[in-house]
Amino acid sequence: MLKAGVLGAGHLGKIHLRLLQQSENYELIGFYDASPEVRKAIADEFGYTPFDTMESLIDACDMVDVVTPTTFHYECAKKVITAGKHLFIEKPITNTIEEAEELLDLAQKHNVLGQVGHVERFNPAFMSVNDSIQTPMFIEAHRLAEFNPRGTDVPVVLDLMIHDIDAILSVVQSPVKNVSASGVSVISETPDIANARIEFENGCVANLTASRISLKNMRKARFFQKDAYISVDFLEKKVEVVKMKDAPEQPDDFAMILQNAEGIKKQIYFDNPDVPSNNAILDELDAFAKAIKTNTTPIVSLEAGTEALRVAKMVIANF
Length: 319
What we know:
GO molecular function, one term: nucleotide binding
Number of helices: 9
Largest sheet: 9 strands, mixed
Mean pLDDT: 95
CATH superfamily of the largest domain: Dihydrodipicolinate Reductase, domain 2
InterPro entries: Gfo/Idh/MocA-like_OxRdtase_N (IPR000683), Gfo/Idh/MocA_Oxidoreductases (IPR051450), GFO_IDH_MocA-like_dom (IPR055170), NAD(P)-bd_dom_sf (IPR036291)
Structural class: alpha/beta
Order of helices and strands: EHEHHEHEHEHEHEEEEEEEEHH
CATH class of the largest domain: Alpha Beta
Domain Gfo/Idh/MocA-like oxidoreductase N-terminal: 3-118
CATH topology of the largest domain: Dihydrodipicolinate Reductase, domain 2
Shape: globular
Radius of gyration: 22 Å
Strand order of the largest sheet: 7-8-9-6-10-11-12-14-13
Domain GFO/IDH/MocA-like oxidoreductase: 156-216
């Protein structure tokens, strides 16, 4: 088992502590939080071992899970990597592209693996159709959330939209050609609502909307490609796959047939895969353990996290 520790014991940090303790791939060594009061409270309530310094926790671990506020990601991650320990780090990877690129160089220099916590990659709905999404040419994503003061220290693009940016980059796999965007600050000092149009070199266009002041929660993406439409509901864990194929000579009475102006007939059919239930955070942590044990590239590598941040920054720059 890999010895694991957590840096940061806030809302998400406590979730990671619980799941690392449950995992069969890790031995939870303990945690560090900058607040002595938080360290004592977490230790008293849950029994996790508190460490008095960040460095002492890092030294005791094989893998360190950084779940601090984004502004501290770079500082913490640099200490983890230079100590020769594997790094799991929450999204966004860092505050700036320069910081992320330095972490990439350091990870290569110290021969350690890193994974970024873009948890929607492990959403069972997205995973169930991942192989079916082949060269999408138009993508539409909506990520709407009710207001929560937690996370408003960064623009909604880095708080919410970056989830969809990462997922879309993973399936399009083409360089970004152009970005246009708009953002509005309503209640925070940074934009609370944003819309972005991302154009890729292969011709694909993605239209993304994110809001953290909505009246209801929504996390949906729709992928349009030749002969197929795929809808993913990240929140409800549901998918809808509509495909078209050449109509048979003699379709049955219940077949749905479309005929275009050239007389070509297509049959519409539904191919909705089963969506198993899972704990996406536990799955991403366990996937990282597997990557460490087999010395293979993590599913959401530091490079992927850096690219998602790069595109997110392009969106923000276009406000």
